[in-house]
Structures
1.
Amino acid sequence: MNLLNDGETSTKDEVKPGRSDKRTSKKGMSWPNSVMVAVDQLGNAIAGGNPDATVSARVGYFSVHARKPYVWYWKVLEKIIDYAFQPVDGPNHCFDSYRADEDELFQQGSDFFRAILGLIVIVFCVPTAVLLRLAVLVYPKWHFSNRRKDGLSTSIPE
């Protein structure tokens, strides 16, 4: 029994999670990517940021738009995050994340929340840097340069 609105019935054309919709040519995120983005957004919300934006996008935004005396803080976080994700996303992870979420509201947060954000970045990016470097040794197709050759990455360096 199908309980869709107004007596609609289910069709074979329904798009399953992670599959592309041929009518709109959009592809949903895979389950692991969806979970990682959700955890990232949770970390951003815990650190006083917009719960719909990721930590990387927030850092990317403020590394470009922050004013003194906080410019150095955002630039350091950007370097840490970019280094961690460089094997799979290339050198500009934070800036690319910001560009992908330009329509989001980015909140700097108070000194307390910026300190929490710094801790979150350090605690998660140090092991991530090690794991991603090991992962691209085991799965070379995951390296950003190989994915771009195969057309699997939409990130374009500027």
2.
Amino acid sequence: MACGNAHISKSDSLAVGAVQIMLGIFSVLMWYFLLVLYMGQIKGVFGKYEPLTYKTGCTLWGIFFIVSGVCMIKTAKNPTRALTISSLGLNLLCMTAALISMVLTLVELSSFKSVSYKNYGQAKLGREVSRVLLAVYFLEIFITLMHSIFMCGSLNRGHGAVSTSATEETETAF
């Protein structure tokens, strides 16, 4: 298998987990921002702007990213086979959620129905937030894919341990 020789250090795994937690928190905060933004709309002639991603709560799925990041950090600190497998499962869940969110965001950004002039500014700002979240989803897919490849490599070596770098092994020897 191609990922059999992949290695990741403990510090890299901790950093990736922390980044994933930050991306999840950012997504949840953006959902709250969109909630406040869209709740303040006024019923106009053309109606309110309620995009597909807002209705499905895609940005609220950032909770999956937070849980997966916590599991990554726990796996890096105490690498066991069960934690590695659960980290892989959560990475798969996050990758799926990010892919679905990315597709829904692209559908939302490709179609724009006219809204009331009173709500146009809110709709425009909401679309800009969706563009930022599209980049976040892409980054989330990349992070979970790379970490999954490295965790797959550690499982193929016959143990669930995250490999340590030469500098970490030297530091622990002293």
3.
Amino acid sequence: MTLTTLQSLIALVSHIFFILTAFWSLQAIRTDTLIRKYHIPQARTLYILAAIAIGYTVSQFFLEFILLIQQLFFFL
């Protein structure tokens, strides 16, 4: 397995993990008062899109952080 393949696999797993974690965390927010009647599919779509946006951003942060730490140790 090449280094590029391993990095891609780690990034994919990281993205999925943080997206699922963000989706799980978003369910703690009470949105009953914000959602209008008969708009449940739109609310679910909003939850999924928000989870993807938050999860991807957090995943990118951690992957970038790990990369910067590796580069720091490389230069020392």
